[in-house]
TrEMBL record:
GO terms for molecular function: dTDP-glucose 4,6-dehydratase activity. It comes from Blautia liquoris. Keywords: Lyase, NAD. GO terms for biological process: nucleotide-sugar metabolic process. Transmembrane segments: none annotated. CDD domains: dTDP_GD_SDR_e (cd05246). Belongs to the NAD(P)-dependent epimerase/dehydratase family. dTDP-glucose dehydratase subfamily. The keyword Zinc does not apply. InterPro entries: dTDP_Gluc_deHydtase (IPR005888), NAD(P)-bd_dom (IPR016040), NAD(P)-bd_dom_sf (IPR036291). Residues 5-330 form the NAD(P)-binding domain. This is dTDP-glucose 4,6-dehydratase. Its cofactor is NAD(+). The gene is rfbB. It comes from the Bacteria. It catalyses: dTDP-alpha-D-glucose = dTDP-4-dehydro-6-deoxy-alpha-D-glucose + H2O.
Length: 360
């Protein structure tokens, strides 16, 4: 049975990845989920898996060398999928140091722990042991012209403390691959959306606010462009890179779904109006009149567009979910999990798990 160590597995993409992997491999694998349970980590995302014999949760900070080394010492970890990171740009502008600590120092701790555990006396590494570092398209900076795309060879040009910290962690992984021939890959993905996404991010924020008749904030003129990728497609891509990707390579995972932020908001409004029953009082609240333009974010990148040509050609991955289908699936999920949203927005999910793990 192959053992996967997933960092940040209680977060949005990490929890979706764990669900995807158990759906695909069931009892053929074991997953160890290491998460610090910051505000973005929510074990309710994985509540239906917590009694599986082949799933283990460990509350730990990836910057804690002793805790991470202990995980490797006590388990024959063959795969590492490193999601754990501070990821919200606005938060990075207010407190950059937290992002440097988690994203840079935390990645170094993970690399060292895996290297120490996997390295053989002759300096090579155990066969079929692989480290995958999950990164972002934001490390590439901003595209100004239509028709331009980010490729794996695009020079890094980060513009926020968040993207700078992720670029730094990518460079560390590249350095370990070059210096030690450490068996790793890097993936850079576009904006994800789907179930379990924390409501400070655009799509769940707009869904939640619209259903309550609250303002729908739009930065600047709303014409900033992002490439949107349904989270399950991303999870599939990560798995395929670990199984079929060439070691030491970077693979861009993009959705081919470029849309302006204002377009996203209007699509969500339209979907909500169609999906809400006529007798649901929230239907009357959902309106374009809620759209409110606010001061633009500092250092706001104008356009992201990522080319997945390499991963398509080498591995056969492609984004399967059209945005129009993915957004309806996402809204339907939030309709079915209103208690989840209430617990997250109220902070109750944190209180419950803080008490549970307070003495560990």
């Amino acid at each position: 049975m192959r053992t996967y160590l997933v960092t940040g597995g209680a977060g949005f993409i990490g929890s979706n990845y764990i669900h995807y992997m158990f759906k695909k491999y069931d009892n053929e694998i074991k997953i160890i989920n290491v998460d610090k349970l910051t505000y973005a980590g929510n074990l309710e995302n994985l509540k239906d898996l917590e009694n599986r014999d082949n799933y283990t949760f460990i509350k730990a900070d990836i910057c804690d060398r002793d805790s991470i080394n202990k995980v490797f010492e006590q388990n024959d970890v063959q795969r590492v999928v490193h999601f754990a990171a501070e990821s919200h740009v606005d938060r990075s502008i207010k407190d950059p140091e937290v992002f440097v600590r988690s994203n840079v120092l935390g990645t170094m701790v993970m690399l060292n722990a895996a290297k120490d555990s996997w390295e053989l006396p002759d300096g090579t590494f155990k066969p079929d042991h692989k480290f995958l570092h999950v990164s972002t398209d934001e490390v590439y900076g901003s595209l100004e012209n239509e028709g331009e795309y980010f490729y794996e060879t695009t020079p890094y040009d980060p513009h926020s403390p968040y993207s700078a910290s992720k670029a730094s962690s990518d460079m560390l992984v590249k350095a370990y691959m070059d210096t030690y021939q450490f068996p790793a890959n890097i993936t850079n993905c576009s904006n994800n959306y789907g179930p379990y996404q924390f409501p400070e991010k655009l799509i769940p924020l707009i869904i939640n606010n619209a259903l309550q008749g609250k303002k729908l904030p739009v930065y600047g003129d709303g014409k900033n462009v992002r490439d949107w990728l349904y989270v399950e497609d991303h999870c599939k891509g990560i798995d395929m890179v670990q199984e079929k990707g060439r070691l030491f390579e970077t693979y861009n995972i993009g959705g081919h779904n470029e849309k302006q932020n204002i377009q996203i908001i209007k699509i969500i409004i339209e979907c909500l109006q169609k999906m809400l029953p006529d007798n649901d009082p929230r239907k009357a609240l959902v309106s374009d009149q809620l759209i409110t333009y606010v001061e633009d974010r500092k250092g706001h990148d104008r356009r992201y567009a990522i080319s997945p040509d390499k991963i398509k050609k080498e591995i056969g991955w492609y984004p399967e979910t059209k945005f129009e289908d993915g957004i309806r699936k996402t809204i339907a999920w939030f309709f079915d999990h209103e208690d989840w949203m209430k617990n997250v927005t109220s902070g109750d999910y944190q209180k419950y798990y803080e008490d549970m793990y307070s003495d560990r």
